[in-house]
Amino acid sequence: MRFVVRTHSPEETRLLGEILADLAGEGALFALGGDLGAGKTVFIQGVARALGIDEVVTSPTFTLVNEYHGRCPLYHVDLYRMSGPVDVWDLGLEDYLEGRGVVAVEWADKAGELLDLPLVWKLFFSISGKEEREIEVVPPPEVEVSKLKEALTLGGFEVLEWRGF
Amino acid sequence: MVVAQALSSQVDIHALFGGVVPELAARKHLEALYPLTLKVLEEGETSLGDLDCIGVTVKPGLVPSLLVGLSFAKAVAFGKGLPLVGVDHLEAHVFSIFLKEEVAFPFVGLVVSGGHTSLFFVEGYGDMALVGQTRDDAAGEAFDKVAKLLGLGYPGGPVIDRMARKGDPEAVEFPRPMLGKGWDFSFSGLKTAVVQYVREHGEDLKDSRHLAHVVASFQQAVVDVLVDKTVDAARCLEVPRIVVAGGVAANSALRRTMEERAKGEGMEVFFPPLSLCMDNAAMVAFVASYRFARGESHSLDLDVSSRVSYPRIEP
Questions:
Q1: Angle at which helices B63-80 and B26-43 pack, to 10 degrees?
Q2: How confident is the model at residue B19 (pLDDT cuts 50, 70, 90)?
Q3: Taking a C-beta distance cutoff of 8 angstroms, is the pair B253, B164 a contact?
Q4: pLDDT, tens digit (0-9, with 9 covering 90-100), for B154-163
Q5: Which of B253, B271, B289 represents a domain boundary (last residue)?
Q6: CA-to-CA distance for B186 and A123, rounded, in angstroms?
Q7: N vs C: which end of chain B shows fewer Cβ within 10 Å?
Q8: Using one digit for the tens of pLDDT, what is the confidence trace for B256-303?
Q9: B111: Cβ–Cβ under 8 A, 6 or more apart, which residues?
Q10: How far apart are CA B253 and CA B215, in angstroms?
Q11: For residues A59 and A80, what is the distance between their CA atoms, to the nearest angstrom?
Q12: How many beta-carbon contacts under 8 Å exist across A and B?
């Protein structure tokens, strides 16, 4: 099950983060991959907005994990500087995954299979134009398809592909 | 005065643990802490019993790493009956210059590194208000990511600094994000502009002269934003002194441009020596010393925090 959305501005990417986080609820895991500058941090700014976090959401590339407290905790993780799954294991990611908080991981491909968990939303970002981004989303199998479709329609998103639903 | 300091460097840790990210070795940091402490005491010709207090970083940062340091500090403080003083990492950067020379208050302090880009109005020891911060990427992060994108290697700061000297900083017009819009910073858009440039002109970058122009132009964009906002904040707050700290303070273009611009405004600029720009324990001890001197200390239930908030001054 997967779909591809095309966004036309950072604000639209942010909005996608907001509606998917609303849909995913507490305890959700977002695993983000894709190009540098393709909108991963921007998407997570939207996730933060959905959780009622009004702090500035900055890149955790150097700090590795940024914690925010909204309706539930948000753990914003960045694996950019990791060399592979062994480093990710050292980070103690499992501690963040146990609670009711939302975990959003950038450069998730560095984690290998560590993030292949039942509730994971997998997203892949690519740059398709100056402001345009294509975002491939693989939702968890349990997702309520009608709600997802409704949210994407309400948000006015351009859906390029819609497969396996 | 720094009696003695010791640093377990990234290189050491890399060799010790075989990892590339030193903070990740949180559990193994504990192994490094005890020998380091002994080394400092020996070099300082002192012992734990001679100390006034134990200073330790408690925020902001990666919680598991901070916890290792705090737990060790608590054990020493409890064992020797010494007071414990928790320190803010960014405050330590702002005051690192004091280990070299005293700066009169008030001053504007820019902390710029891989993880932080924050501008403070500093009125006294530990008395800091936030006047600006990055809304996305830190400046040092932009240096590292652009260096990697252009295939220049790691760490990005020194490589870009060196290469930019061979290029024309006005060759490519990169955006100056948020310039003229308050004192907050944004470097994500600039990073993306370089990504776009590489998409469109990838072939041209095989020419090393052209590559140097791109590097110099990117560096100048970062430097212009950092300098403009810092000088503007100092002018508006009527402060004739600027302190620049953190790893990016080692950048030669930033030093040169900041000094020129400040001189034109009749302001003084202070840069800590390079060894104090990087993360170090001496600056943490310094903050602990003035906080302890005015009667501050923490109980043993002191906790760490991944984030920190300051009083805010808007333009």
A1: 40
A2: very low
A3: yes
A4: 788 999 999 9
A5: B271
A6: 24
A7: N
A8: 999 999 999 999 999 999 989 988 999 999 999 999 999 999 999 999
A9: B90, B93, B94, B117, B118, B119, B120, B245, B246
A10: 12
A11: 11
A12: 87
CA distance B307 to chain A (A): 7
Supply the CATH number for residue A135's domain: 3.40.50.300
Same domain, yes or no: B280 and B291: yes
- Number of structural domains found in chain A: 1
Which residues, including other chains, have CB under 8 Å from residue B121's CB and lie 6 or more apart? B106, B108, B109, B128, B129, B131, B233, B237, B239, B313
Nearest to B143 by CA among B61, B222, B211: B222
Domain containing A50: what range? 2-163
Report the residue from B115, B135, B192 with minimal CB separation from A63: B115
Identity at B68, one-letter amino acid code: V
Say yes or no for a CB contact (<8 Å) between A127 and B199.
yes
Please answer whether residues B46 and A48 qualify as being in contact, where contact means their C-beta atoms are separated by less than 8 angstroms: no
The amino acid at residue B89 is: H
| Distant-in-sequence, close-in-space partners of A110: CB < 8 Å, separation ≥ 6 | A79, A80, A82, A83, A84, A85, A87, A88
The pTM for the full model equals 0.92
